[in-house]
């Protein structure tokens, strides 16, 4: 199988775990926020984690999952401000900027499509400065449903005019890739090195890459072998 760039007009990229290192998010929600909440309520950290993790899970696959205003009100804490306390952990994955430049250089329509809340976007785009590489940014909070919802990709057409069969989607979440597959998006890539702190685990359902540099064709070529990428990824794993 080949990824033929002559057949791709639009590139849609997720943010957290896909172009940005998810270590920041995992550390914030699993460690930093519970620690601050435990101190405020004077409860042991393990108890705080148990309560908060259950609360977080209750909002999975909903817009509340990434809504910082929702969590600020629910927890009685300034969540955006707490994120700023560890913003030094926000980082772009290796090879992402090179890939974005490649897409721009070859005239691809390039959009950041994310479940992230607008306040999260403000913090991360200011820190990473990757926003100008994109034609635009669309949040699920604008669309009205998260990417896990089968209706997301059709509703996205109100913000981005794209032909599904000529579109490439890069995601670290298999559920989102599955809803995109059902909608008919032609090129689906699973980013398995979502965090710098974990070993990559290739998907059993989708073609996986560790870094976006795997997608860059050799000079003068317009196609890259997906099978070759998978073989190289297996060596790295």
UniProtKB/TrEMBL annotation:
Output the InterPro entries linked to this UniProt entry: HAD-like_hydrolase_sf (IPR050155), HAD-like_sf (IPR036412), HAD-SF_hydro_IA (IPR006439), HAD_sf (IPR023214)
Please name the SUPFAM superfamilies in this protein's record: HAD-like (SSF56784)
Q: Keyword set for this entry? A: Hydrolase
**Protein name as catalogued:** HAD-superfamily hydrolase, subfamily IA, variant 3
The superkingdom listed in its UniProt entry is Bacteria
Q: Which GO molecular-function terms appear in the entry?
A: hydrolase activity
